[in-house]
Amino acid sequence: MTRTWVLPMLFGSCGLAVATGLTLTGKPGAATALLLVFVLLAGVHSPLVFPGSIGALEAQRRSAVDGRPIVFWRPGCKYCLRLRIRLGRSARRLHWVDIWRDPTGAAAVRAANGGNETVPTVVVAGQPYINPAPEWVRAQRYPSA
């Protein structure tokens, strides 16, 4: 199991343990509700929601070749999740860099944000844009995959 699945598996295991405890004490409705919450948390933090991350240097290299934007993000960021969900299928055409897994990406975000790790930071043609609207990102002209 890779590190990216540790948090989702932890959420799933905790949800199952809590639901089992509530079911044994005679509260199946509460058990079902809490299990759904934990499953939702596991899904949101899983690698299934975000396209596979690559390193910042690789993303910059690929972006220079194909012209696609780079999105610097981190797990648990509600604004990154909003961007990902609102982009829909077109999100797979972007280069995603997880700043918690890539120190070079974190440094690039700090450089663009005056020392802060504000995400999502989207780089289009070498120009960083901090927490842009999903509609704006979708409107950028980038080649289809």
TrEMBL record:
The chain crosses the membrane at residues 29-50. Keywords: Membrane, Transmembrane, Transmembrane helix. The keyword Magnesium does not apply. CDD domains: TRX_superfamily (cd01659). It comes from the Bacteria. Pfam families: Glutaredoxin. Residues 71-127 form the Glutaredoxin domain. Gene3D superfamilies: Glutaredoxin (3.40.30.10). This is Glutaredoxin domain-containing protein. It comes from Streptomyces luteoverticillatus (Streptoverticillium luteoverticillatus).
